[in-house]
Amino acid sequence: MAISSFTSTQHNRAIKNNRANQQAQGEWFVCPTPKKNPLLRFVCFPHAGGNATTYRPWAEWLPEEVELLIVQPPGRSSRLLEAPIDCMAEIVEQLSSALLSQLCVPTVFFGHSLGAKTAYAFIHKLQDIGFQLPEHFIASGCRAPHLSSSDPIHGLDDESFVNRLRNLNGTPEQILKDQELMNLLLPGLRADFKLAETFVRDYTNKLAVPTTVIGGTEDHYVPRRDLFAWQQHFSLAISLHEFKGGHFFFEETSIAPLTNSIIGSAIRNQATLYSSVGG
């Protein structure tokens, strides 16, 4: 059905019809280049409004023995007709059902903005059920989870909301100007921003996961102090790196060298562990 003939009424009806079958029919992750026996899986959690398209090209610079998995929540891309989820507990519960079978090999988690909070909440879920934790966590462009949003936008009227999206420089202008397309995208975008802006967790239960926090030097939404505040959530010392650019700095500056260094260390650590156990 052409977007031009897809009314808001039809959209709402489609969402209602799809909600009951959301988990069964939806694909919670995308794997651009499946590997037969990967040594490690690099799992990407997208930002608000983001989807697998952003991270697909990363498969080109990841090590050959690493498989890329991209989380694809409902309400976006191929799952556009599914009802978006605006509750972190529900997101994590459905992720658990869909992803646990993929975590049978070592993993490194990467999350940008909302994705960092989702990955963090999922790691807590893994710890709660006694499952293997990631070898490393990369939190990108996101304030620490105990810090609430100082200027939430998910409740703004449509015009103000779209203007704020424009200021973040993460959505192409041709999409923002397409009113009919935005009518389809706004429910998912609002749900994502509600997730990002309302999820708050204290740091009483610290995680023992090696963690790297990265951000943009010109990101006015997430200052350096908010990046460093992630330290309060981990028992191990975090590593903080800043790259030239704004909130979507990784579109301007390659993070491949740092990421591949982290992945290489994780693979070597696993090899050392298996060697010592075998010995």
Secondary structure elements and pairings:
Layout (H helix, E strand, L loop, with lengths): L7 H12 L2 H4 L3 E2 L9 E6 L6 H4 L10 E6 L16 H12 L7 E6 L1 H15 L7 E5 L17 H11 L4 H4 L2 H20 L12 E6 L7 H5 L10 E5 L12 H23 L1
Parallel strand pairs: 2-3, 2-4, 4-5, 5-6, 6-7
Antiparallel strand pairs: 1-3
Helix pairs in contact: 4-5
Task: Provide structural commentary.
- This protein has ten helices and seven strands.
- The protein has 279 residues and is α/β, with parallel strands linked by helices.
- A seven-stranded mixed sheet has the order 1-3-2-4-5-6-7, with helices on both faces.
- It is globular, with a radius of gyration of 19 Å.
- The protein starts with 7 loop residues before the first helix and ends with a helix.
Q: Low-confidence spans: pLDDT under 50, at least 5 residues? A: 1-26
Strand order of the largest sheet: 1-3-2-4-5-6-7
* Apparent shape: globular
Structural class comes to: alpha/beta
Radius of gyration: 19 Å
Order of helices and strands: HHEEHEHEHEHHHEHEH
Distance between the termini: 61 Å
β-sheet strand percentage:
5-15%
